[in-house]
Amino acid sequence: MADEHHLELLWGGEPPSGRGRPARTTREQVVAAGIARADAGGLHELSMRQVAADLGVGVMSLYTQVESRDGLVVLMIDRAFAEVTDTLGRRDGEPWRDAAARQARTLWDLYGRHPWILDHGHRMPMAPHVLALEDAFYTPFLDIGLPASASANAAIALRSLVTGLARDSRSEQDQVRRTGVGYAEYWSSLNAVFWDRYFDEERYPAMTRLWYAGGFAAEDILAGEGILERAVAAYLDGIAVRVQPGGTGQGTGGA
Amino acid sequence: MADEHHLELLWGGEPPSGRGRPARTTREQVVAAGIARADAGGLHELSMRQVAADLGVGVMSLYTQVESRDGLVVLMIDRAFAEVTDTLGRRDGEPWRDAAARQARTLWDLYGRHPWILDHGHRMPMAPHVLALEDAFYTPFLDIGLPASASANAAIALRSLVTGLARDSRSEQDQVRRTGVGYAEYWSSLNAVFWDRYFDEERYPAMTRLWYAGGFAAEDILAGEGILERAVAAYLDGIAVRVQPGGTGQGTGGA
DNA sequence: GATCCTTTCGGTACAGCGTATGGAAAGTCC
DNA sequence: GGACTTTCCATACGCTGTACCGAAAGGATC
């Protein structure tokens, strides 16, 4: 009923069995080739034919390793998340806020290295290393004694905040990278033509105020990473307010 | 250099000129048909041939109205955002936090009605009614005297938070709707099979704690809208902390 | 009314996609 | 040396977006 999650593919670790014609290619190689393609040109330039060509292999041979294109993408995501699995855990003596902020930053950087993850249409797959990251995100909030459902909510929201911000900012950098135009150049020229050809200052008063106050300067918004740190800090402040007044821990309830 | 933004399509209001063979179809009709298709089956079931068939029109005739499939999607997004343009503005006497929270909730509901917006690969288009929403999001933060770049950051982060949360939660509801299985049923069966076939409690200690504490009960996480309100409230608390201590307004600087 | 001009219509065609099918090939095991 | 098992991959099918271009349908002009 629900095997669009590729659970067997992700979790079933069947050994190769030894018999029969040996495969010219391992699953890891296929996944790595897919990641290379996606890193270079985004998810929509990842075609089975291209990956097969990169590996010097027939197209249909890939399907002995990955079951479908969607399955390949899911495996690629798992592989990408594996890059950070070991660095996520909360360290000895690390304050919970530092841990949460560091994890957020780690995820942000991961999206920076593999922006195509953000183009994945569905929810993040239930993959081993994706779960590892989610588990790490829950930890700081559980440790400060937030109730279970509040911890879950807080962690999910933090993750969504990072993901949403990454989508908003990275996608433009992608566009820049594809067209080869420099970021400042691209941004200013686009804004210039847009601003004095179409923009109606009376229709968008807030943006107009921001524009003249310099709030849209490229280095303030997307180019710098400041937006992530600021947003995460604000969100964690909100969580801190919620946990401090009640004491150190207000009855987690649960193992 | 940059006409993948469809600026002409979105902002250029050329009148139909009168002469020549009259069109059998208006742009609004095409966009409406596209929205109907996408509402029913998601963006990946939106094909030009389908839309044309729905309108009883040849496929290529659509291209006199929309320039490309991507242009159609962009117009559909603009049209969807137009649904809420009039309800966004801050009301008389409305506290800034209420305004921001209401706007966030409005966007959330919009995503609920048209989940396919979240499947759009690129950044939100520079469309009239999308800008209207962005403008509204900036307003509360500007009004409390946050500096220009901080206002921009805060509004973008709030928007990204809503978008990220919507993507995380809605996509699963989508899946449920497509397969026709009830939500609770689907979730519990998936979790049951996953939990006791693959899950390793030692590998994911935080999730294990949450699981046994009931933090993953469906009604607490995705099904309820509580997660949005909680996350937005926490984030706005963080912003409030940031503006209160400095006084009522700490020198916006700008028009 | 006939002609020209402008615009839209839409059939055909093409390149690309994911992948089902199934015979050939290449190993291990008895 | 069969028998068996597994992989390889050429071919084919249906689907996609859309370039091309002659045909059609209206207004404008004579």
UniProtKB/TrEMBL annotation, chains A, B:
Residues 1-23 are annotated as: Disordered. InterPro entries: Homeodomain-like_sf (IPR009057), HTH-type_TetR-like_transc_reg (IPR050109), HTH_TetR (IPR001647), Tet_transcr_reg_TetR-rel_C_sf (IPR036271). The keyword Transcription regulation applies. Residues 47-66 bind DNA. It comes from the Bacteria. Keywords: DNA-binding, Transcription, Transcription regulation. The keyword Transmembrane does not apply. Residues 24-84 form the HTH tetR-type domain. This is TetR/AcrR family transcriptional regulator. It comes from Actinomycetospora lemnae. The lineage of its organism: Bacteria, Bacillati, Actinomycetota, Actinomycetes, Pseudonocardiales.
